[in-house]
Amino acid sequence: MGKHTGFLEIDRQEARYEPASDRVRHYNEFTVPLTEGEIVRQASRCMDCGIPYCHGNTGCPVNNQIPDWNDLVYQRDWEEASENLHSTNNFPEFTGRICPAPCEEACTLNLEDAPVTIKTIEQTIADRAIKNGWLKPEIAEKKTGKKVAIIGSGPAGMAAAQQLARAGHEVHLYEREAKAGGLLRYGIPDFKMEKHHIDWRVEQMEAEGVIFHYNENIGVTRSFANLRKNHDAVLLSGGAEHPRDPGCAGQDLGGVHFAMPYLTQQNKRVSGEDIGDEAPILANGKKVVVIGGGDTASDCVGTAFRQGAVSVTQLDIRPEPPKTEDKLTSWPHWAIKLRTSSSQAEGANREFQSATVEIIGNDLGHVTGVKCTRVDENRDPIKDGEFILRADLVLMAIGFAHPLQEGLLAELGADLDPRKNLFADTLSYRTSVDGVYAAGDMRRGQSLVVWAIREGRQAARAIDMDLMGGTDLPR
C-alpha cells in the first residue's frame, strides 16, 4: 500500500493559496495546485494501516476507499483511481473542495499532526478525470417504466437523481431556483467552489436521462398532491433553510441580515443572475460584524472582504480552542481545536467567548453597533464584560434550525422529529406518507455536503428496492 517507507521519508505538503492581498480582489478559486509529481509523493505517504479509520464512518461518511485510490495514484494509475473514487462518491470534485476532511482527522498519521493530504488528492483525481474525458454518461440499458420525482437539487437530490437514473428510472428533479445545486450554488461562495463544476455534472446527468425543472417551488407554484399522483415515488431533499434566530433586540434594524440572503445575492451577482427587487446587501466601505463562528460565518467574512469592507469582526460564543488537541482522547474523531479558515486569514478580527446582547441603531432605524458581553464557559455573562463594536452591517450566521415549514411540508403533513426535521430512518428513508421519502439536511438537519451525498445515494437505493423488489445500487 503506497510506498512502505513513504510516511517516514516524505513530509506532508498542502496546496498553497494565492496571497490574501491578491485573492480578495476576485471571486475565483485561489488554491495553487500541487504538481502531479507532488501529488504522487503525497499519496505514497499513505500507510498500510491495520485499521484505516479514514474510510469508515468515523472518517468518511460516503466510505471512500481512500487507501486504495491513494495506492493507485502512487502507481500513477489515475483512471483506475477515478473509477474507484466514483464508485462511492458521485461528486468528488465538490467534496475535494469544500469538505472539512474528517478523513484527515482520522488518518493514522494525524497522531503526529501530519495526515495524508487526502482531500487534495481526491480533488486532483476528480479534476483529472473530468479534464481527460474519463467520465462518460452512464445511460441505463433498460428502462424500468417507473417515474420518480425529487424535490431539491442540492447534493442529496443530485446524488439520488443520478443513481436512480442509472438504475433505469425516469427521474424528474424539481428546483425552486433558476439553476441546480442548492446551497452548493447559492450558499457557498465561488472562491471556495466555482459553479462550472456543478454545471458539468448537470450536463452529465441530463445525458443520463435526469429531467431538471427550474423555478418550481413545490407547495407554492405547484401542489404536492399534483406532483405525487403523477409519480411512483417522491424524494424530498430540500435542505434545512430556516435560520437559527439569535433572538436579540435590534435585529430588525436596517443593515442587519441573516447570512444566507447575503451570500445568495453575491453568488447571483457573480453568475450574472438577477437578484430581482431585493434591496442590495453590500459591505463596501463598511464596518462588518458577523455573529457566528462556523463555516457560513466564515463565508460571510470572505465575501465581505471581497466587497470592500473596511473591517470584519467575527463573534464566537465558544471559548478559543487549543491550537492542538489531545490525540489520546480525541483521535480518530473530529477534534475541537483552533482552526483558521482562508477567509479568516484575510484579516478578520475574531472575538471568542463573546455573546450578542443587543444590536444598536440610530434614529433613522439603521444599525450603528453591536453591544456584546464576555461570557464564561457556561455562556453566562461575565461581570463588567460588556463592550460595543461599531457596525454598519451585521450578518447573523449561527446556523439553520430545520426545513422551512410553510408550503410543501404544511401540505404534506408528514411526521417530524423533535427538531422539526422530516422523520425517516436511515434504512428505508421513508416518511410517514406512503411513497414519500426524505434525505439530506431535510431529514438529518444541517450537516456536511458529504453526508448529503451519502444520504442521497442510500435513499436512491431504498427507493429502487421498494419500486423493483430488489436493487443493484450500492448502499
Number of strands: 17
Reported for the largest beta sheet, the result is: 5 strands, parallel
- Shape estimate: globular
- Please mark out the parts with pLDDT under 50 across 5 or more consecutive residues, or reply none: none
Over the alpha carbons, how many angstroms does the gyration radius reach?
23 Å
| Proportion of residues in extended strands | 15-25%
Class from helix and strand fractions = alpha/beta
- Share of helix, binned: 25-40%
Question: Could you give the distance between the termini?
Answer: 26 Å
Strand order of the largest sheet: 5-4-3-6-17
Total of DSSP H or I helical runs spanning 4+ residues = 18
Chain-averaged pLDDT: 96
Report on the structure:
By secondary structure, the protein is α/β, with parallel strands linked by helices. Helices cover 32% and strands 16% of the residues. It contains 18 helices and 17 strands. The strands form five sheets. Strands 5-4-3-6-17 form a five-stranded parallel sheet, covered by helices on one side. Strand 12 and strand 13 (367-375) form a beta hairpin. Helix 4 packs antiparallel against helix 5. The longest helix is centred in the last third of the chain and has 20 residues, at 449-468. It is globular. The protein starts with 5 loop residues before the first helix and ends in a 7-residue tail after the last helix.
